[in-house]
Write a structure and sequence with these properties.
Chain A is globular and about 35 Å long. In chain A, a hairpin with a 3-residue loop joins β4 and β5. In chain A, 0% of the residues lie in helices and 60% in strands. In chain A, the strands form two sheets. In chain A, strands 2, 4, 5, 6, 9, 10 and 11 form a seven-stranded mixed sheet that branches. By secondary structure, chain A is mainly β. In chain B, the strands form two sheets. In chain B, strands 2, 4, 5, 9, 10 and 11 form a six-stranded mixed sheet that branches. A five-stranded antiparallel sheet of chain B has the order 1-3-8-7-6, with no helix packed on it. In chain B, a hairpin with a 2-residue loop joins β6 and β7. The model of chain B has no long low-confidence stretch (mean pLDDT 95). By secondary structure, chain B is mainly β. Chain B starts with a strand and ends with a strand. Classes of the chains: A mainly beta, B mainly beta.
Chain lengths: 110, 111
Amino acid sequence: DAGITQSPRHKVTETGTPVTLRCHQTENHRYMYWYRQDPGHGLRLIHYSYGVKDTDKGEVSDGYSVSRSKTEDFLLTLESATSSQTSVYFCAISEKAEAFFGQGTRLTVV
Amino acid sequence: KQEVTQIPAALSVPEGENLVLNCSFTDSAIYNLQWFRQDPGKGLTSLLLIQSSQREQTSGRLNASLDKSSGRSTLYIAASQPGDSATYLCAVRGAGNMLTFGGGTRLMVKP
């Protein structure tokens, strides 16, 4: 398995609180991605990074921010969590070819 | 905007059958196409990667083909087994190195 670790794996949080999800890789891959997966919508790209401090928005970026201060870490922050952000979040890495995914973080906003 | 469609959305077959899963995409300007498997509650496992210059890739009982000009890929599974039951996802890599996913095909192989 590709060296990708997502933390936490599960989280329950209250509406209005900030939440940060972490993706850590040991593969030194340039590209990192955050997706969310929801029934009926499939996997949708939130943000991605193409290098340290280089990030861009995806399809569903509203309400999310990201940071990448080191090659190995890509953080996703929900600035003020809402119930619509209840989802499973996946991190992925790639080097222009094959993409590898983490095991996911199940986030519930109550 | 790239759109990826997978047909059928769900499929139930008896063990031993050969089957074909379909993936179509609207923009043929892709770098590659990747097939994944996802088991319930789990992450995505990469099955096959086809570069845009390739026509097919094989891994064991799996064979994936790519017709970039017509915007289609198929995943062929030979001699299906109950352990093949999962959701199969295709994704295309296009401009900006972004992956766009199809909605998936949920496969059930009955013993």
